[in-house]
């Protein structure tokens, strides 16, 4: 139980810290990327304004004063010339549609930019991709601005800036951060384990104290209970006592209740002593022989209700398990099968050895009893849980049997499962791995 809790806590701490760190990194990265992008946008718009103020006098004089317009269709610039040109460029489109350079600009830039501009709305600066002949992509931020003077539209200015370097840096930073996160996860896991160990200390202490208390209380209760039981037996068996039949019945009831109480106390003691850290002492035993013995022990109880109790096959099966643990586990299931099966019913035990990647022993205890509703099938394994409290009281049940059975199976990394239906009997199956 402790180990499981420790593992879940480690998982929880690791996940929580890693999630927090990842969110923080993503947030920080997004904020930085957004900030740098906004800066670039502001810069390119400022550049457009500067260009307008610089060239406004020329524009007012007429288009002939500009650098000659580009020759559409011609493309003979080198890659280096293109890269230099893309760094920061601007050109003007007149209201008539003709394009003029503000500086000497390779024809390809203007052709590409005007084509992109035609296709997109550039009220907000946007990133476009320019592909070189060798397949290399450059990311260019493009923007447009109307040139207005005294209410007249003189044309439009287009500006562009190559931001490939910035985007590459951001991409590298992201990869670097993710790699950093991977390394950090290792340290976070170690931190999670340490934190889980620390958190477990008070829990472990309190559980150990609780266990110690139950063990001591059960020990202390055993002696007075057996004294009261023996006392009642002595009074009942003393022939000299002229007890009325009422007093006799009361004493018999007391005896019965004390027996149930002793039973519960020894069950509690068993549960509190089940130490999960102690390795089970396994020994090769014939489990079928133990089952035969258990059947013999319980035969008188079954006969009282005219219940037949039998083993499907008595061929020996050797399995590594502690003899007492196995006997106790089987006894609980058989005792329940008899308790919760009405008169004239039947109880059958059968074994199967299965082999997948591992070898498993399966022990089935099948009865023709009252059965269990679907919603109760998991609950019955909880401590002190009884489906019908009145009925369990009559049969002397305390609701601890199945939780002991499950703990015993889990001690060997096994399990106990039930398949049942109301009025259709039940089949309890214990699975024990090799
Ligand atoms: P109890 O001492 O009450 O039998 P258990 O833990 O052994 O406690 O069982 C819990 C409850 O599960 C029982 O009270 C009973 O209602 C139900 N139960 C157990 N075994 C059977 C069975 N073979 N058939 C029907 N009900 C069962």
Summary tags:
434 residues, alpha+beta, 5-stranded antiparallel beta sheet, binds adenosine-5'-diphosphate
Nutshell version of this structure?
This protein is of the alpha+beta class.
Write the layout of secondary structure elements.
Layout: H1 2-61, H2 79-87, E1 88-93, E2 99-101, H3 107-119, E3 126-131, E4 137-149, E5 152-162, H4 164-237, H5 245-273, E6 284-286, H6 287-304, E7 308-311, E8 318-320, H7 323-339, E9 346-355, E10 359-367, H8 389-395, H9 401-411, E11 415-420, E12 426-433
Parallel strand pairs: 7-9
Antiparallel strand pairs: 1-2, 1-5, 3-4, 4-5, 6-8, 9-10, 10-12, 11-12
Helix pairs in contact: 1-4, 4-5, 6-7, 7-9
Bound molecules: adenosine-5'-diphosphate.
Adenosine-5'-diphosphate is lined by residues 336-337, 340, 367, 369-370, 372, 380, 385-388, 392, 397-403, 426.
How would you sum up this structure, described in words?
The chain is α+β, with helices and mostly antiparallel strands. The chain has helices spanning 2-61, 79-87, 107-119, 164-237, 245-273, 287-304, 323-339, 389-395, 401-411; strands spanning 88-93, 99-101, 126-131, 137-149, 152-162, 284-286, 308-311, 318-320, 346-355, 359-367, 415-420, 426-433. The chain has a five-stranded antiparallel beta sheet, with helices on both faces. A hairpin with a 5-residue loop joins strand 3 and strand 4. It is rod-shaped, with a radius of gyration of 43 Å. It starts with a helix and ends with a strand. It binds adenosine-5'-diphosphate. Residues 336-337, 340, 367, 369-370, 372, 380, 385-388, 392, 397-403, 426 line the site of adenosine-5'-diphosphate.
């Amino acid at each position: 139980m402790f180990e499981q809790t420790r593992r879940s806590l480690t998982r929880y701490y690791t996940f929580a810290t890693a999630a927090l760190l990842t969110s923080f990194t993503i947030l920080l990265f997004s904020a930085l990327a957004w900030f740098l992008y906004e800066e670039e946008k502001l810069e390119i718009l400022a550049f457009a304004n500067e260009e307008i103020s610089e060239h406004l006098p020329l524009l007012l004089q007429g288009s002939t004063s500009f650098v000659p317009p580009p020759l559409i269709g011609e493309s003979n610039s080198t890659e280096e010339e293109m890269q230099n040109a893309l760094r920061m460029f601007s050109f003007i489109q007149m209201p008539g549609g003709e394009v003029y350079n503000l500086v000497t600009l390779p024809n390809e830039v203007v052709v590409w930019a005007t084509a992109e501009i035609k296709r997109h709305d550039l009220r907000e600066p946007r990133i476009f991709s320019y592909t070189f002949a060798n397949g290399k992509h450059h990311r260019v931020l493009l923007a447009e601005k109307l040139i207005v003077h005294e209410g007249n539209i003189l044309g439009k200015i287009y500006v562009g800036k190559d931001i490939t370097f910035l985007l590459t840096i951001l991409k590298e930073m992201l990869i670097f951060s993710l790699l950093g996160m991977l390394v950090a996860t290792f340290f976070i896991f170690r931190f999670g384990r340490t934190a889980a160990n620390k958190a477990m200390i008070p829990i472990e202490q309190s559980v150990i104290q609780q266990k110690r208390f139950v063990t001591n209380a059960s020990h202390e209760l055993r002696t007075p209970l057996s004294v009261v039981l023996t006392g009642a037996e002595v009074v009942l068996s003393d022939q000299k006592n002229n007890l009325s039949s009422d007093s006799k019945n009361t004493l018999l009831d007391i005896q019965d209740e004390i027996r149930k109480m002793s039973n519960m106390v020894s069950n509690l003691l068993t549960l509190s002593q089940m130490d999960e850290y102690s390795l089970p002492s396994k020994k090769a035993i014939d489990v079928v022989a133990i089952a035969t013995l258990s059947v013999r022990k319980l035969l008188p109880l079954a006969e009282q209700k005219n219940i037949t109790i039998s083993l499907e096959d008595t061929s020996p099966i050797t399995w590594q398990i502690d003899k007492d643990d196995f006997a106790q586990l089987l006894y609980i299931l058989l005792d329940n099968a008899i308790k919760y099966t009405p008169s004239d019913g039947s109880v059958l035990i059968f074994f199967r050895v299965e082999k997948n990647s591992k070898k498993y022993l399966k022990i089935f205890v099948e009865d023709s009893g009252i059965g269990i509703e679907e919603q109760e099938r998991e609950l019955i394994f909880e401590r002190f849980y009884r489906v019908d409290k009145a009925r369990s009281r009559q049969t002397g049940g305390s609701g601890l049997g199945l939780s002991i059975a499950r703990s015993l199976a889990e001690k060997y990394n096994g399990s106990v499962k039930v398949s049942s239906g109301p009025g259709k009997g039940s089949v309890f199956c214990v699975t024990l791995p090799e």
